[in-house]
Amino acid sequence: MNKCWKFAAAGCSLFVALLGSRTSWADDPSAGEPGSWQKHEYSFAFLGFTSTYSCDGLADKIKLLLIAAGARHDVKSQAGACASGFGRADKFARADLTFYTLAPIGGDTPADVKRVDGRWRPVSFADRSPRELSTGDCELVEQFRNTLLPMFTTRNPDNHTTCIPHQNSGSVIDLRFESFTAVPRVPAPGAGPTRGSLR
Fold first, then answer.
1. Dist CA 146 CA 133 (whole Å)
2. What's the confidence (pLDDT) of residue 198?
3. Mind listing the pLDDT tens digit for each residue in 135-149?
4. Is 0.85 topped by the overall pTM?
5. 75 Cβ partners below 8 Å, 6+ apart?
6. Residue 94 and residue 79: Cα distance in Å, rounded?
7. Which residue among 121, 156, 166, 170 sits deepest, i.e. has the most Cβ atoms within 10 Å of its Cβ?
């Protein structure tokens, strides 16, 4: 083997090593990439056969799902126009939503758009995950998946949720996906919590 060939082989090994490091960075769910906030406004009307919510209870549950899925923490979820009073179950429960989700910045994004550090984060919905979620919310999770989850930037969906109408027995909440979310801000050493910081 001459010197030239040895140099080429060394260069090839270096190239392969660099390529491998770039691939692992791209596949690393903690690796950051720029994103921008997208605003959504939606009137959510629950349509289910098994569980019944009050309008304020529905608003609280939807807010829980939105934040768990990666929405910005300033979600506004308010009881919609309902015939029943506060805290009373309503077959036509509604919630008015205003929330922001993070989307990766593409090449056609205007330069003046505010950029936010984002990353891919695994999300799992199941009985008691989040803690306030139960099997009785099965149909709500299904409707959330169909109507609100498409407003998020997600990948690798894995859904095995099964809801049996008019009964909780046999129903299963099992929805997993990766969501593009904002990287949590790390406070400076010795600094206390700031107003508006994520918890």
1. 18
2. 40
3. 999 999 999 999 999
4. no
5. 63, 66, 67, 97, 98, 99
6. 6
7. 121
